[in-house]
Amino acid sequence: MSEPQTPTGAAARATEPDTQPLIHMSGISKIYDTGKIQVEALLDIDLDVRNGEFLSIVGPSGSGKSTLMNLIGCLDTPTAGTYELQGEPVSGMTRTELADVRNRRIGFVFQNFNLIPQISTWENVEMPLLFGRVGKKQRRERVEELLEKVGLADRGEHKPTELSGGQMQRVAIARALAMRPALLLADEPTGNLDSSSGGDIMTLFEELWRQGHTMVVITHDLALAQRTKRRIELHDGRITQDSHSK
User: Fold this and answer.
1) Is the pTM here over 0.90, yes or no?
2) What pLDDT sits at residue 34?
3) Which end of the chain is more exposed for a tag (fewer CB within 10 A), N or C?
């Protein structure tokens, strides 16, 4: 079975008029019931993200960033409101369908990299393609392409423990892109990196955005957030600012 083909770059923007948003959230709330108290993590969130956007979600600890990331990534479900991904209601999906969405439509990049230390860089990047039942030849070509894209073509046989933090995050980004997802979702992607390596990762994100990828970055670092083209600010579970840069 071959992997899904999704237009990227200028071709994608030319063929997709963005008549509907990639992400559409309306009246989203998330309440955690601990038994004794209810914690209102998100309250009445309205958010649209269109194909080809590069935005950050920022806010202090406890503002709701991680909760919103989990909802966007289909890792959790809202208490109230509606969420549509590529025009499809997420609330009606089964667990199997949600798992398929997470493998095929959303590429995740985490602060702690989440690489498998016992296998090579190559095998880590290949993993989503195996789950996606992509053929051997297509897998080989895709992994080669991705390692070249992130500047690690000569590190395919190295294990994660043999790489620097910045290199491990590049492997994680390559893995996230493996299935040509509609959305790249990064949660504090520079949190475990020094300032130089973190800046390099944001530069890579900018390059990927210019190639046509839709990027959502969750971060507490305002300096990094200012490098995105749109910034969503959260406070106490509500969107308090939605600004665009030139």
Assistant:
1) no
2) 81
3) C
Residue 50 identity? R
Sheet containing strand 183-187, edge to edge, reads 106-110, 183-187, 215-218, 54-58, 230-235, 238-244
Angle between helices 136-149 and 121-131 (to 10 degrees): 130
Cα(234)–Cα(25) distance, rounded to whole angstroms?
A: 15
Q: Round to whole Å and give the CA distance between 146 and 153.
A: 8
Instruction: Find the mean pLDDT for residues 133-160.
Output: 96
